[in-house]
């Protein structure tokens, strides 16, 4: 199953990038470059969603629209796509 959530990336004073997901609580990523931060954000979102799906009371949050986000000047928004395969024993 494919899950797509927006991530917001900001360049820090140190010159690296920090990203966060407005919809996924405490799901963040950093990287030396924007590409690194996006790759790390993909892994963080995968872990976050996988953990949520393993809960008995799984409730994935709705997806925010970019125009509804509180963005700062220079913020970069990228949709992060996570593919998770469901195995036998998982209910969809």
The description of the largest β-sheet is: 4 strands, antiparallel
Radius of gyration: 14 Å
Topology as H/E string? EEEHE
Helix content: 10-25%
Residue windows where pLDDT falls under 50 for at least 5 positions: none
Total beta strands? 4
**CATH C-level name:** Alpha Beta
Structure annotation, total helices: 1
The largest sheet has its strands arranged as: 3-2-1-4
Could you say which overall geometry the principal axes of the C-alpha atoms support? globular
Count of spatially separate domains:
1
Report the span from N to C terminus: 9 Å
Examine the coordinates and then state which fold CATH places here, giving the name of the CATH topology.
Answer: Double Stranded RNA Binding Domain
Would you mind describing this structure in some detail?
With 92 residues, the chain is of the alpha+beta class. The chain has a single domain (2-83), classed as 2-Layer Sandwich (Double Stranded RNA Binding Domain). It has 1 helix and 4 strands. Strands 3-2-1-4 form a 4-stranded antiparallel beta sheet, covered by helices on one side. Strand 2 and strand 3 (28-31) form a beta hairpin. The N and C termini lie close together (9 Å).
């Amino acid at each position: 199953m494919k899950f797509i959530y927006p991530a917001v990336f900001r360049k820090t004073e140190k010159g690296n990038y920090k990203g966060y997901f407005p919809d996924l609580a405490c799901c963040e990523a950093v990287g030396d470059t924007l590409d690194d931060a996006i790759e790390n954000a993909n892994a963080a979102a995968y872990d976050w969603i996988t953990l949520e799906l393993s809960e008995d009371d799984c409730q994935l949050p709705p997806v925010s629209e970019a125009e509804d986000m509180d963005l700062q000047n220079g913020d970069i928004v990228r949709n992060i796509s996570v593919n998770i395969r469901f195995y036998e024993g998982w209910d969809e």
